[in-house]
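Incident log, entry 3
Record: ATP adenylyltransferase (185 residues)
Problem: checksum mismatch between cached and fresh output.
Input:
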Amino acid sequence: MERDYDGSEYDTEGSNGFAAVPDAFQRLWTPHRIAYIENGQQPAKDECPFCVAPSLDDEKALIVARGTHVFALLNLFPYNSGHLLICPYRHIATYDLATPEEVAEIGSMTQTAMRVITEVSHNHGFNIGMNQGKIAGAGIAEHLHQHIVPRWALDANFFPIIAGTKAIPRLLGEVRAEIAAAWPA
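Fresh output:
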């Protein structure tokens, strides 16, 4: 047993000898993420994948739908099968820079994506969100994009933690074709 600054005792056995004040949080150590923190992995503006994608063939770019102001494409590094991104065509960094038309189309395309993904993959829920800026964890911080991640009961596993591997049960091209085919015209 160790003594805290106020004289109370606490057990540090679970901390491998490091001094710590116990709290209610579990720690998930992910040292592989340090590359994103240290390097940022941000592309040069002329190499922005969300600016380049609309100029490519939909299949090659993994685009499943195109709107007037935004488009939907599969995430090249998905958390789950069917992980989509909704991106404006304009190269803007944050949601507050989007026009009312872009905001409305991001919303309507998100709703359509949820319906289509549920129809083709029978998922049980979604994680939806935007990481705004490098400090907030945006993989591509300079181009606004919203994540739509389908979730299933029991889909969480420890491969990423134990083996540095993500178990994605379906190929990107297969998922893109299925979602694109089910997208309403």
